[in-house]
Amino acid sequence: MPGYWVVKGGDVEDVEALAAYNAIFSVIAVRYGVEIIAGRSRVETVEGRHFPRQFILKFDSYEIARACYGDPEYQESLTLAARAYSRELSILEG
Q1: Are strands 3-9 and 87-93 parallel, antiparallel or unpaired?
Q2: DSSP symbol at 58
Q3: DSSP characters for 67-83?
Q4: N or C end: fewer C-beta atoms under 10 angstroms in the chain?
Q5: What is the tens place of the pLDDT at every residue in 44-87?
Q6: Gap between the Cα atoms of 93 and 6, Å rounded
C-alpha cells in the first residue's frame, strides 16, 4: 500500500533557504522514488485554516515514506525548511 506525505505551509519567508532545501530534497526524492501528485497549481481552502503551499507526495509504501523522513540527509535539511516557511507534514498510509 502506498505512503504519502501531506505538506501544508505558509508563505515563503526565506527564498534562499527554500532553494537550498529544494536542491537537497530533489536528490533525496530520486533516492526514495517520490512522486509529487498534487500541489503544483491552485489551492482552494473550503474548510479550516488556509495554507497557501500544499503538496501531496506519493511513495511506494508507508515504510518508504517514513524512511525518507528519517533519512539523515533529510533530517539535516529541516533547518532550511523551517527557515523557508512554516509548515505541517503528515505521513499517511493509503
Answers
A1: antiparallel
A2: E
A3: HHHH-HHHHHHHHHHHH
A4: N
A5: 999 999 999 999 999 999 999 999 999 999 999 999 999 999 99
A6: 11
Q: What single-letter amino acid sits at 81?
A: A
Grid coordinates of 6 = 501531506
Nearest-CA neighbor of 77 among 18, 30, 12, 33? 18
> Where is 93: in which H helix or E strand?
strand 87-93
The pTM assigned to this predicted structure is 0.90
Cα–Cα–Cα angle for 89, 91, 92, rounded to 5 degrees = 135
The set of cell numbers assigned to 50 is 488556509
pLDDT tens readout for residues 24-34: 999 999 999 99
Residue 88: band (very low, low, confident or very high) from pLDDT cuts 50, 70, 90: very high
8, β-bridge pairs: 54, 88
Cell readout for 51 is 495554507
92, 8 in Cβ contact below 8 A?
no
